[in-house]
Design brief:
Radius of gyration: 20 Å
Length: 206
């Protein structure tokens, strides 16, 4: 909803979003009431509707912020001399770091997307961006003769993304008992092996 806000109004709006993130993580989406958000923010109940039309709208703002923060974590790339296996491990570690910092909200989006159609699309768009990046890498490595040329890149990227994201969900959102470094090395090795990469010592062709 478009609004022209004063600097003070924008600060109040951001404070409400901050508070909503805290309350949603603590209580879930269904059990959160607008009065819970305003109480957390220290704002009058009626002021909420100056900035948001509904609980769904402010939840969308919280999720947008979460996605932005996760993308910032994922944006750091290795230099040109890194091997494909090193790139996979680096990307896996970044994903784990991003997921770990936002595990409760990512898990909550999974739940909300199953009952509210607009958030289903938000969830799918986030996944599409992640898998598209993986698909581009797979296509490039196929062209370089590094991975199995018979694999359909889009399907392989989607399958591998499901492996990593579901593992992180069960581990970080559902309190699985796993050692982080072993998780990263295992997922990275399974990803590379699934693509048909040569062992680490002979990753580069020729």
């Amino acid at each position: 909803m478009g609004r022209n806000l004063t600097a003070r109004g924008e600060r109040t709006r951001q404070r409400l979003i901050d508070a909503a993130g805290v309350v949603f993580a603590r209580q879930g989406f269904i059990d959160t009431k607008i009065t819970d958000i305003t109480a957390e923010a220290g704002s009058a109940n009626g002021s909420f509707y100056t900035y948001f039309e509904s609980k769904e709208e402010i939840f969308g703002e919280v999720i947008s912020r979460v996605n932005d923060q996760m993308r910032e974590t994922l944006d750091h790339r290795l230099g040109p001399d890194a091997s494909p296996r090193e790139r996979i491990e680096h990307a896996t570690r970044q994903y784990v770091d991003a997921y770990k910092s936002q595990a409760m909200m990512v898990a909550l989006l999974e739940q909300v997307s199953s009952i509210i159609p607009e958030f289903r699309e938000v969830r799918l768009e986030t996944r599409r961006k992640f898998t598209a990046r993986s698909e581009r890498s797979i296509r490039r490595w196929q062209a370089e003769g590094i991975v199995d040329p018979e694999l359909p890149p889009r399907y392989a990227a989607a399958a591998l993304a499901s492996m990593v994201s579901n593992f992180c969900y069960m581990w970080l959102a559902m309190d699985g008992d796993y050692e982080e470094d072993l998780v990263i090395s295992t997922l990275s090795r399974m990803w590379a092996n699934a693509l048909g990469m040569a062992p680490a010592e002979s990753t580069h062709p020729g």
